Amino acid sequence: MSAPAETPAPLNFVPLASLMFVVSNFEAGQPKSLAEGKCVMAHFVKVGSRAELEDLEGGKLVEADGQRIAVFNIGGSCYAIESTCPHRGGPLAEGMVTGEEVICPWHGSRFNVKTGAVMTPPAREGVKSFPVRVTGDDVEIDFAERRFITVKP
User: Fold this and answer.
1) pLDDT (tens digit, 9 = 90+) per residue, 43-67?
2) I need a labelling partner for 97 at 20 to 30 A (CA). Which of 4, 69, 70, 145 fits?
3) Architecture of the structural domain at 45-142
């Protein structure tokens, strides 16, 4: 009598539809492709509708995923940065927007709304920026924070 066939081990996989590759957000030295074995898992959260942000002249404060985020509409595209100024905690969502910069209403530091980079003092460091996407009528922010997962071929 022959030995019974072994049951194959269950397969572990990550559906490709749930993966998002954000090459521009990788730090120097981090893998940039699935072939290198790592990728970024997206974590998008709805923060409003396209209609709510369409005629926005300044910023809009949203609280999502435990964070206070300032959302801006610049030339029809939405951008998101941390809303708290690193200098003294000023609310960047309440700041005046000029071009691609928001001015902290407390002490005048300027930040690029696309990148979060500090442009003028007194702040010495920038704020975190978040990827934004529009899906249908929903505006969503990615809170993935570079969470790497390993993908085995």
Assistant:
1) 888 888 898 888 888 899 998 778 8
2) 145
3) 3-layer Sandwich (2.102)
